[in-house]
Amino acid sequence: QVQLVESGGGLVQPGGSLRLSCTASGLDFKTYAMGWFRQAPGKEREFAAAISWSGSRTYYPDSVKGRFTISRDDAKNTVYLQMNNLEPEDTAVYYCAAGMFSGWGGDKTVYDYWGLGTQVTVSS
Predict the structure, then answer these.
(1) Pairing of strands 113-114, 68-73
(2) Going by DSSP bridges, is the β-strand pair 92-99/118-122 parallel, antiparallel, or unpaired?
(3) Distance separating alpha carbons of residues 56 and 89, to the nearest angstrom
(4) Is 122 within 8 Å of 50 (Cβ atoms)?
(5) CA 115, CA 124: separation in Å to the nearest integer?
(6) What are phi and psi of 88, to 5 degrees?
(7) Is 17 helix (H, G, I), strand (E, B) or coil?
(8) 87 contact partners, CB below 8 Å, separation of at least 6
(9) What span, in angstroms and rounded, lies between the C-alpha atoms of 97 and 111?
(10) Which of 4, 13, 35, 95 has an alpha carbon 20 to 30 Å from 50's alpha carbon atom?
């Protein structure tokens, strides 16, 4: 049974930082591309970051480019999302996802497995 478990969310002030983690089990992690998506209340789930199975390629939407960094540690079956200079607009539930595909990871339909999410709130 595949499980993806996110952690690291919380309340942070504007301009602050958080690091999210997602640990996977039940799959051959090193063969999966990994992504982070987010969903704010009343909005659709949107792409936040993705990393290829090899870790050699990363992808970001313009809204987070330069502020978010995705990375992976295959020895720990874990993908991370370092979020800096957070803005109130970053408030959302953040989900990690795993998929066996190559190329740009911004399309949520290419992912096979999803976590349950972790809440990130940016507010003063």
Answers:
(1) unpaired
(2) antiparallel
(3) 29
(4) no
(5) 28
(6) -55, -30
(7) coil
(8) 14, 122
(9) 6
(10) 13
* pLDDT tens track for 91-116: 999 999 999 988 788 999 999 999 99
Hunting for tokens 């009343």 — which residue is that? Answer: 42
The residue length of the chain stands at 124
What's the token pair of residue 70? 């995705």
Task: Tell me how many degrees the CA angle 113-119-124 measures, rounded to the nearest 5.
Answer: 155
Tokens of 116: 């349950």
Using the structure block, give the residue that is written with the tokens 């349950």.
Answer: 116
DSSP 111: -
User: Which residue, chain included where needed, has tokens 């809204």?
Assistant: 63
